[in-house]
Design goal:
There is one protein chain. By secondary structure, the chain is mainly β. The chain contains four helices and 37 strands. Strands 4, 5, 6, 8, 9, 20, 22, 24, 26, 28, 30, 32, 34 and 36 form a 14-stranded parallel sheet that branches.
Length: 504
């Protein structure tokens, strides 16, 4: 009996000590209440860290489906381009089922050498291999030619519905808000797709000092007309002239800088329900600095609700997966980008690149990249990079240039840096890289996180690593909290927000 009692006491003491050593702490910006729900703490303007949960395939509310195989391809000798493209075209001509799928093309294990680009331009097509290893399905970008190996793309662009534009009447709509008032909501209904429009203005450019970039050859000062931002949203509720939307405001709408507007839109030609999975991609190359070879393994554009999962890319010059600006609600998961082949300089080795909206990148691994988890110019969120790592990096992770808006970097581990800063005259005048960029519980060699002089904040919460001063002197510090303090709760903001939203 004495022995049992001692064990109980020892276990209790060990548990207490373990909890004390963990030193769990919560952020002053987002915390968890006694019921397990998140509580958002606003600043003096009413701005909060936004909800990033509604991203990826169907905003996470639908699981990626296991689509039925309707066509199978066996390995072929020589160039497989025409055989594979013909199979894709035949599948694309089949009728869609009740769920919007034509079916899956199963590409059996083996090596397929492809001299050009495979194109998927139709709804409801899934390309499926039998594993992303050397013993699985291997698609090789053969020979020469800088290209995307698999291009998944519809066509078209956002088109404003005539006479649907209405002004937002609030003087200030805070970052994180999911509702606002308009002059007249009578022409809208639940389910309408709208553009939340934030105009660029000269006063805004002046206040963030992007008309004063120190010039070098090729530097372009920012022009207001180039910074009209169009966020895709859906109306979830209307009360009088108050509009409620599915995803929050990612950058405050301030009447001082032109406020905001909404309008209905169409996107004719955009495709949906396309996936690619379980494939190893490789590229021929002639030397470690060869640039005349496969550049992107898989590219998405003009598509909504699609996925890429269980992919590995080796020896490409740019990316495993590249999402262009017309890609929305894409989930990229459980994939790897290894051993890029190129000169190590600009416009190369963007292992997982996102220029679209409401996209999710999770459970990824990279080596030998430059900008492994990265966004480009005027990339409009929410977008999320979650639970991913990079090693042997040659540059930094984060918004790469020109005002990306609303990105969460959650549980990213890198032996390089994550930076959110004024990039100054790098490139052709990148300037401020982003706003509402949230780094949560990331492990880094170093991080520079700065706030622009107007229009919001960037956050570095629970960072393990060195705090860097950034490229340029005199820039305001970002919102830093808990540097090198382990035990941040919740461990993942993204997972906590998904739980709050009822997403499993």
């Amino acid at each position: 009996m004495k022995l049992k009692k001692s064990i109980v006491i020892a276990a209790a003491l060990f548990g207490t000590a373990a909890f004390a050593q963990t030193n769990h702490w919560q952020s002053k910006f987002v915390s968890v209440d006694p019921t397990g729900k998140l509580v958002y703490h606003a600043d003096k303007n009413g701005d909060i860290i936004p909800d990033f949960s509604q991203v990826g395939y169907y905003h996470g509310h639908k699981a990626i489906p296991q689509v039925k195989v309707v066509k199978t391809i066996q390995p072929v000798e020589g160039d497989a381009l025409s055989v594979l493209q013909q199979a894709i075209d035949e599948l694309s001509a089949m009728p869609k089922d009740k769920d919007g799928f034509r079916g899956a093309l199963l590409i059996k294990k083996g090596v397929y050498r492809i001299s050009g680009t495979l194109n998927v331009n139709t709804d409801g097509v899934v390309l499926r291999g039998e594993g992303d290893t050397e013993n699985g399905t291997v698609l090789v970008a053969s020979g020469k030619g800088q290209r995307t190996l698999v291009k998944i793309s519809g066509k078209g662009r956002v088109n404003e519905v005539t006479n649907s534009r209405k002004s937002i009447t609030d003087k200030y709509v805070a970052t994180g808000a999911k509702s606002f008032d308009v002059t007249d909501a009578s022409g809208f209904k639940n389910g309408d797709r709208i553009i939340l429009f934030r105009p660029g203005t000269d006063e805004w450019i002046q206040d963030i000092q992007m008309d004063k970039i120190v010039e070098r050859q090729g530097t372009k000062q920012w022009q207001a007309k180039d910074y009209n931002l169009s966020f895709e949203r859906e109306i979830t509720q209307i009360q009088g002239n108050t509009i409620f939307i599915d995803n929050p405001v990612m950058m405050a709408l301030d009447s001082k800088y032109g406020g905001g507007e909404i309008f209905k839109y169409t996107y004719n030609g955009r495709i949906t329900e396309v996936g690619i999975e379980n494939i190893l991609f490789d590229s021929d190359y002639s030397s470690d600095t060869d640039e005349d070879h496969g550049w992107v393994a898989v590219g998405f554009n003009h598509i909504e609700n699609g996925w890429a999962k269980n992919l590995t890319a080796k020896h490409f010059g740019y990316a495993c997966v590249n999402l262009s600006s017309g890609a929305k609600n894409i989930t990229v998961t459980d994939s790897k980008c290894f051993d890029a082949i190129s000169i190590i300089t600009g416009s190369r080795r963007y292992s997982f690149n996102n220029d679209g909206q409401q996209n999710l990148f999770m459970n990824l691994v990279t080596t030998e990249g430059r900008h492994d988890y990265v966004t480009g110019a005027k990339v409009l969120g929410p977008n999320v990079f979650y639970n991913s790592s990079s090693t042997k990096t040659h540059a930094d992770i984060g918004p790469h240039h020109r005002w990306a808006v609303g990105t969460l970097y959650d549980n990213i581990t890198t032996d390089g840096d994550i930076n959110v800063q004024d990039r100054g005259n790098w490139g052709s005048g990148h300037g401020w890289a982003g706003i509402t960029q949230v780094l949560w519980n990331c492990k880094v060699r170093g991080a520079a996180v700065q706030n622009p002089w107007a229009s919001g904040k960037n956050y570095a919460i629970g960072i393990i690593g060195n705090k860097l001063k950034g490229r340029l002197e005199g820039r305001p510090d970002g919102e830093w909290e808990g540097l090198n303090q382990r035990g941040l709760m919740p461990q993942s903001l993204f997972e906590a927000q998904r739980k709050d939203a009822g997403i499993k």
